[in-house]
Automatic annotation (TrEMBL):
Residues 1-106 form the HIT domain. A motif (Histidine triad motif) lies at residues 91-95. It comes from the Bacteria. SUPFAM superfamilies: HIT-like. Coiled coil: none annotated. This is Histidine triad (HIT) family protein. Gene3D superfamilies: HIT-like. The lineage of its organism: Bacteria, Bacillati, Actinomycetota, Actinomycetes, Micromonosporales. The active site is at 93 (tele-amp-histidine intermediate). One of its GO terms (molecular function) is catalytic activity. One of its GO terms (biological process) is nucleotide metabolic process.
Amino acid sequence: MFCGIVAGEVPAFRVADEPDGVAFLDTRPVFKGHVLVVPRAHLVTLDELPAEVLPGYFRLVQRIIVAVETGLGSGGTFVAVNNKVSQSVPHLHTHVVPRTKGDGLRGFFWPRTRYTGDADAIDFARRIAAALA
């Protein structure tokens, strides 16, 4: 579906169409003005985004953040990338959601947990660091 939007074959409410990516309104927005930013190439997850494309893509995301805040007068934005789990469309996309104080969105959309102690946190940190490529 997103490849069709990038190619211009599927209609979308485009915000930007640039070499670094395409930005368009989410059809099921959290709040009006919720924008999705996608790279031109079909990639499923963020780790597939080539290093040479990364700066331009995230510069576009930064510009969309500023445009959403300025153009809509929002107090800020929530920026997120779902990677596999909760990724409703299997194409890398970055959400830029306008936020205003008192909009009802509270923190993250999932419950929080705690580490059982420092040893537990150290174990998780060590496992992630060991897998760092």
